[in-house]
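Dear colleagues,

As part of the handover before I leave the project, I'm documenting each prediction I ran so the next person doesn't have to rerun anything. This entry is a single chain, and its sequence is reproduced below.
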Amino acid sequence: MRKISAIVCILVIILSTGLMSGERITEPHPNTYSHTGALQVNVDNINGYPVANVYVYVDGEERALTGPFGYAYIEDVPYGDRQIDIRYSITNPDFIGDYQKSPDITVDKEKEVVNFIATLPESSYLAQARTKGDSSSFTRIENFTPQIVPVIAVAMAVVDIASVTWSTDEFCSCMFQEERSLGIEQCIDAITDCGGDTRGCIREIRENAGPAANRCKFEGAMLVGDVASPFIPTGIAGHTIAKVVGEGRVLRIVDDIGESGRIVKTKAGDVVEYVKGGLSWAAKWVKGVGFKLGVIHYVSWWDELSQPALDGWNKALKNADRGAGKELLEDIGKGRADRVGKNLVGMSDDAAEWMAESTIGRTALKGWGDDAQKGLAEIFEEKGEQFTGNLARRFGDEVEIVSKGVGRGVIDVDRVNPEKLAVYVRGTGKIGVADPLDDAVGKQQLLRMMKSPHVTTEIVDDGGKPVEVIDRVAVLKKGSASKKWGWEHIVDRDHDNQIKEAFNLADTDKAVKDFIAEGLEKGYMNPDDPIEIIWDTTNPDHKLLIILSDSSPGSLTTAYPLPK
């Protein structure tokens, strides 16, 4: 078994063709026939290098993905005429889409081999493929929905070997499971002697490995680098040489991964640690999934988080002090860290980093709800670090409620200064309502605070004395249908649907509330009745009437359309 591994050389996986896909094989096809064979599907690019992660279908059923060596080995294929398809996506902007190549074959022996060349759908490429023996039909397909959806779609030109101190013994022992067998020794010798004949070594692997490649995906992935999953970003142009060195036949990369990158250490079935771009990263192989990537390998359970959560924490902690990041994650704990990470992934890079670094941001991540975390990040994004820090210092615990209000859309930060909501929260606290956004508040629950140049909102105590005054805003509360005020009154009288119909709005409560907010900002006060705001909209048939409370300054009683 000479030259069994091409892995000591760089495998050029997708040479500027822009192919992309996922990683994982499906369950074996059940053997319902008396005669079955094995099917080996090899997929190369036009230059003869293997293409990983191409979907393979047998008679229209998804059966496998090509592995690190560019082939899939499928067992229990019934004898007889079969249609074999490979399906893959092309990201090249001139040919973007999903494509399929399909030959018909006859399975009549223990092992059938089918060779494909994955190309761009351009006539010169297809002609080259035919000269290389692949004359299968090539078609564009619609609604391609594989069972296993790729976690990340990526197009790479060059993939480096993702190992510095990886012993070839691990790979060869997996391929040949008997300890100290002749096969293991031949495998090790072949890797040592492979030299520069990459494609020749690949052919040897395909001919000899058989189903072992399905069993040894992790070991193979470690040798070919990023092939089995696009999570480890080691595809750096110009880094092209790796070789086996030393008495222990250890595979080492001759130069580093790019200008500032290097693999630190690796262990079979465990974690690869490497440095790239000045950051310390880790990637863990998860069976059936591929690599999980994390900059946050500060805690033992980081790899148990979902990939979206890891993406969020990677964003937040990429420039953080390692000790501070570890402390934050330990304080949050595994149970909460997944949810928090998913919130972080939806924030901008700057906001996510600020949340992990600032005192108020860390407090939010440790204990606040989802809406409050997202709202605090939005305040930071819209108003900046200095404003948000001052808000936290001035209003203390009330900032959590303000942030929740922003996250829920109680205020639009572009139009209403969050400090006005903070003053409102402080005022309700003075009359015994700590959180005016809470459902338990009942009819006094605040649903929206809206900008209005004509309105001043007051919070009054039981004696009618104002405890806080907030100028240039009006408030919409939950209200009461029976008492005929607030949002419940608007809905009870069907004014919400009347507004939607008259002004051709979307069929949502938010659309109605946004429209009322626009009316409060753009309308004028009725000179004959100061509790009425009238908005002469651009609608040729209707205007909007907004009526405020005469006993609770700034609070909306109702709103509805009037004919012009």
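The chain has 18 helices and 23 strands. Confidence is low (pLDDT under 50) at residues 1-33, 148-167, 224-269.

All the best with the project,
I.
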